[in-house]
Amino acid sequence: MIQYNTDKKVDYDRLITLFNQAGWNDKTNDMNRLKTMVENSQIIVTAWDEEVMVGFARCTTDYVFNGQINNVVVDTQYRRKGIGKGLINKILDSSNQVTYMLRGSTRNEGFYRSLGFEDGPISLIYKRKE
């Protein structure tokens, strides 16, 4: 049975594996940046199958008006079992006052829409230069 954790319990080796499975290899080459990402996120939700972390999602929020959900990822062997939905719902349940934006890939658009996400106002991204 999958258990969800919201106290920033993260297996960083598994997080690297999950990010690499998602194609986010550019985010896995600096452990200090990964740890800082977790520390500076207000909400971290992880999914566990016994002692193995199989899912991760995070949110930055002011807990009043806005929150941004990022890095929703589930191990390839555990997909289509409701874990992604569980991760996102744990974040959504953390505050009923917040309007959440979600940053995700278009290949998962149907999944996000099934959870109630819809088109919103324009969103622009400024990418940092390495």
TrEMBL record:
Residues 2-130 form the N-acetyltransferase domain. Keywords: Acyltransferase, Transferase. GO terms for cellular component: cytoplasm. GO terms for molecular function: N-acetyltransferase activity. The keyword Disulfide bond does not apply. It holds the Pfam family Acetyltransf_1. This is N-acetyltransferase domain-containing protein. It comes from Geosporobacter ferrireducens.
